[in-house]
Design a protein that fits this description.
The chain is an alpha+beta fold. Helix content is 28%, strand content 26%. The two termini are 28 Å apart.
């Protein structure tokens, strides 16, 4: 496992990429409404990313056909935008944006309410946000990857939700996906020891029902096995001596 340790000379570029991804996600969020299609979101991401001098990192990655992932309701992640998929009032919708700028990448996602959510939808979305934040709070030089996963899993347990195990966060920087893999479950005090200068994503996928998932025949879309709602929030973080810097805040 070759994990890049970034130095201060890289921080400005990492921050630019993270900020670009964050601002594109905000641009999209302001336009979400019942009646749009997920293909509209893809169009907005392409246009806004270009305006910021970036490129959509996801487009063409291992054959992925779109510039953004759009995951509704029981879709856990990697939903492919489509002109045939129309967003409806009451949906929850995750939008996952990754932007490349000047050779570096930033990755962020959030789950949004379309109209008025059900109590169950509101709960799983707010739980997912708290799970991400619990994982981020465990990051600092000298901590271990297991500390992050344990914090996320414990938060999900308190919420009465489950955490998807088949997918996790990942290193990021000069490439969109790099080592280390960041599990969203685990045992505190185990796993890779974190060092200042590491950069990775924390992006727990939290289900209202069980943690099991299914992969659809399109090769990308992941859904809950039991059809329950799923939500996700993601930040890119830079490990520091006493915590972390959230590059996509």
């Amino acid at each position: 496992m070759a994990i890049e340790i970034f130095g201060p000379k890289d921080y400005a570029a990492l921050r630019r990429a993270g900020r670009a991804a964050k601002e594109t996600l905000e641009y999209v969020a302001a336009r979400l409404a019942a009646g749009i299609t997920t293909a509209d979101i893809d169009d907005w991401v392409r246009a806004d990313t270009a305006r910021r001098g970036g490129t959509p990192s996801q487009l063409g990655y291992e054959g992925f056909p779109a510039a953004v992932c759009t995951s509704r309701n029981h879709v856990v992640c990697h939903g492919i935008p489509s002109p045939r998929e129309r967003v409806q009032s009451g949906d929850i919708l995750n939008v996952d944006v990754t932007t490349g700028v000047d050779g570096f990448h930033g990755d962020t996602s959030a789950t949004f309410f379309i109209g008025e959510p059900s109590p169950e939808a509101r709960h799983v979305v707010e739980a997912a946000r708290r799970c991400r934040d619990a994982g981020i709070a465990a990051v600092r030089a000298g901590a271990r990857l297991g500390d992050i996963g344990a914090a996320i899993e414990e938060q999900a347990r308190r919420e009465g939700c489950s955490v998807v195990r088949e997918l996790g966060g990942h290193g990021i920087g000069r490439t969109m996906h790099a080592d280390p893999h960041v599990p969203h479950f685990g045992r505190a005090g185990t796993g890779l020891r974190l060092r200042a200068g590491m950069v990775f994503t924390i992006e727990p996928m939290v289900n209202l029902g069980g943690p099991e998932v299914r992969f659809l025949d399109d090769g990308w879309t992941v859904v809950t096995a039991d059809g329950s709602l799923s939500a996700q929030f993601e930040h890119t973080v830079l490990v520091t001596e006493d915590g972390c810097e959230i590059l996509t805040a």
